[in-house]
Q: What sequence folds into this?
């Protein structure tokens, strides 16, 4: 069954967790060499691979004398600055032994939030693939601050999957997959081989744990799988410390947990609006405006806006909320905060008279809008 599900795969994103290539003492160079060799074998099969690799902080903290998780952002940034070079060198050496090359791609959330920079990043990665070079992506921890963090590399891997229009996301973890109960405290826990849809009950199984070395637990992996599913891509969560796990996957072995793609996927642009572009403010919408957007698939007009919260400029993403502040949609706004304050509650015909100009009738056009209250399109 698994081989049939993967028969269409030509381009794959492989996310490598910190717990896969490092331990409490630091980087495990032999693990990097083994995984690099496995990826090269996938390249030999004609697959295109984009790697999203964690582990920079774990690789560098030892040289700074840091024991355990770094406690401050400057400590983390300093450790990452040291560790990132060690990781890339480890990958590069093994790839070159197999006559392949790698390239380092460091991103922040701002790089994917801005549409032009998003497309620039996409063009760079796609060009590398065209030349047979394997991109190795990581968050740019040396400059990132909390406001522009992806949060974890599981989330980044899902965004990269959409960025490069991959056919499969493989998340290499230090556990075998998703279990029906916590396997550390329940010896009878059973692996769940296939998840048709990530429901609240499935998310509850993931918990909120995180490892000593990384920032994510099973919960973040399920959220990443959910984002990938909404771009029409399945996700495999497997144990990256298992020998030759990547080859076994493409040999058809039923390993790990496979999360099926959603039956109704978002377009690439709407996926970018929902997950990559960080919202800057809220629009409070009355009952009529909400019904027009949610029930009738219409754009948001100024007459439906009854309040605003936060600041934004034209072209920013905003949250569309009911009067009580509960989000039901997200979209790219056509007017700035100053302009919205003047035209909200007004008819479209009045916009030009009030402002002296008009960009368009719609404050948020339907083509630039994603519903988030629908369970199939829920945004975290």
A:
């Amino acid at each position: 069954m698994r081989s049939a599900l993967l028969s269409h795969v030509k381009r794959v994103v492989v996310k490598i967790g910190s717990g896969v290539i490092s331990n409490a003492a630091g980087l495990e160079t032999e693990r990097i060499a083994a995984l690099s060799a496995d990826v090269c074998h996938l390249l030999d099969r004609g697959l295109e691979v984009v790697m999203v690799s964690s582990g920079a902080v774990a690789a560098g903290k030892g040289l700074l004398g840091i024991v355990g998780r770094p406690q401050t952002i400057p400590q983390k940034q300093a450790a990452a600055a040291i560790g990132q070079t060690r990781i890339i060198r480890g990958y590069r050496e093994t790839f070159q032994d197999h006559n392949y090359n790698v390239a380092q791609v460091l991103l922040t959330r701002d790089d994917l939030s801005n549409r032009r920079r998003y497309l620039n990043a996409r063009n760079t990665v796609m060009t590398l693939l065209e030349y047979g070079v394997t991109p190795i992506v990581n968050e740019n921890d040396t400059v990132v601050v909390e406001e522009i963090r992806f949060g974890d590399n599981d989330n980044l891997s899902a965004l990269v999957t959409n960025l490069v229009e991959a056919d499969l996301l493989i998340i290499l973890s230090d556990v075998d997959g998703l279990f029906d109960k916590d396997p550390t405290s329940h010896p009878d826990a059973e692996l769940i081989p296939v998840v048709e849809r990530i429901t609240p009950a499935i998310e509850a199984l993931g918990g909120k744990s995180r490892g000593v070395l990384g920032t994510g637990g099973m919960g973040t992996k399920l959220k990443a799988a959910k984002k990938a599913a909404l771009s029409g891509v399945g996700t495999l969560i497997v144990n990256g410390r298992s020998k030759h796990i990547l080859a076994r996957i493409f040999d058809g072995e039923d390993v790990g947990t496979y999360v099926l793609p959603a039956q109704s996927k978002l377009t690439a642009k709407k996926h970018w609006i929902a997950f990559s572009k960080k919202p800057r403010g809220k629009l409070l919408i009355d009952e009529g405006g909400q019904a027009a957007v949610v029930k009738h698939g219409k754009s948001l007009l100024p007459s439906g806006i009854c309040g605003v919260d936060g600041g934004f400029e034209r072209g920013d993403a905003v949250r569309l909320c009911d009067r009580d502040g509960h989000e039901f949609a997200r979209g790219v706004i056509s007017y700035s905060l100053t302009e919205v304050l003047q035209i909200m509650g007004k008819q479209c015909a009045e916009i030009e008279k009030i402002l002296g100009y008009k960009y368009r009738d719609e404050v948020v056009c339907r083509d630039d809008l994603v519903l988030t209250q629908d369970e199939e399109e829920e945004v975290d």
Residues 278-377 form a domain with the Archaeosine Trna-guanine Transglycosylase; Chain: A, domain 4 fold (CATH 2.30.130.10). The chain has two domains: 2-270, 278-377. The longest strand covers residues 101-107.
